[in-house]
Design goal:
The protein is mainly α. The chain contains 1 helix and no strands. 0% of the residues are buried. This is Purkinje cell protein 4.
Length: 64
Amino acid sequence: MSERQASGVMTGNSKPSAGQDDKKNDQPGQDFDIDMDDPETAKAAVAIQSQFRKYQKKKQDVKS
């Protein structure tokens, strides 16, 4: 398995990324209130999956 490099202080990058706020970093995680039974959510999920599959196929075709 490959390991990803950590960002921020761990790699010596002391600059915060654009749009990061120090106040946001105090929260360990963010909970999202998404209604999984909403038909619009299902449509969005299908659209995202479709685009991802196209991306994966294109990526695989380029390697071949």
